[in-house]
Amino acid sequence: METLHREKVAVMGSGSWGTALAVLLAENGHDVALWSYRQEEAEAMAAEGENREFLPGIAIPKSIQITWDCEKALTGRQAVVLATPSSYLRSTLQRFKGHLERGALLINVAKGLEESTLQTLGQVIAQECPEHQVAALSGPSHAEEVSRKIPTTVVASSASRAAAERTQGLFMNEYFRVYTNPDLLGVELGGALKNVIALAAGISDGLGCGDNTKAALMTRGITEIARLGTAMGADFHTFNGLSGIGDLIVTCTSMHSRNRRAGILIGQGKSLTEALGEVHMVVEGVYTAQAAVKFMERYHVEMPITRTVYQVLYEELPIQGVMKNLMEREKKSEDLSWHLVTEHQVRWQEER
Ligand SMILES: NC(=O)c1ccc[n+]([C@@H]2O[C@H](COP(=O)([O-])OP(=O)(O)OC[C@H]3O[C@@H](n4cnc5c(N)ncnc54)[C@H](O)[C@@H]3O)[C@@H](O)[C@H]2O)c1
Ligand SMILES: O=P(O)(O)OC[C@H](O)CO
Fold this sequence. Notes:
The chain is 50% helix and 14% strand.
């Protein structure tokens, strides 16, 4: 592995992902500050040398400066990792943007959509911090595995190639392989929307359905994500990559997945509030489902799995009605090659 260029990095958000990435960045040789939203969270981590609440068992190197003071975290830092849950991204940016260094690169690692504005997280960041370049790091990557150095691959995406490559260089090491991808919209949408499909996969498990059902939900899930994504202008191919199908696979199959675990509890008959309380960590799909339903209406696309999850969460669709909702829909043609459909239709017409 080539020698790393040492940078001063701030990680804003000390949940499981922010903590895991701060540890990785420190191990890569960077000078890292880790900012906590809650003072008591920062104090506990500093005193215990680990994040017992969100990432127990992983030692936090002493070189990491842990703080709840935004100014301290950001002063002199040219790379800033945004690791708060998506619903707090805007409020966190508003709180600290006055302390950002001029030209600092903002790297979002949260996965979600802003329901009130129907903006992607990249758009939220660009709106709040228009002077700064934005990148995203996304892909199949549970904090519990990355922090144990289990081989993981992700993508660094930005409209700016230099920003994507800088992000790649910051994070890449022998157990964390980072590819670049120029399609920021597609990368963000894949990461956000897979969480709703993971809730469906969990519900299916909680209901006692089988592997056939899970495979169907994952395959049809990525199809509906790509359908919305391409309607919004993303590149179809991105959904075949790490931030698309890759992340969908891990989140629908792993017991580390908060979304899948919440889905299992709901499928077993727990209420949403009970499921969220039990999982304790952020379950992004619960919020993304609300935004996704608005997006699908705006772009006139069908997303039956996403809509069914929304109905369970917010419209009291009985859990026993989930499979009926999906299986007894009208007959359809499979549309995996979304961009080739027209070509197929032409060929079929010629054959007649
Ligand atoms: N955990 C993972 O494996 C993982 C992997 C990839 C991406 N992500 C994404 O990273 C983001 C953060 O997830 P996480 O798993 O680290 O969360 P988490 O549930 O582990 O931690 C939540 C954090 O949010 C903080 N918080 C609570 N209220 C807040 C507020 N009002 N403002 C700001 N912060 C507040 C808490 O103090 C805590 O540090 C999510 O978008 C998630 O989808 C997580
Ligand atoms: O645990 P989940 O379901 O929130 O997923 C976390 C990451 O997005 C997995 O890549």
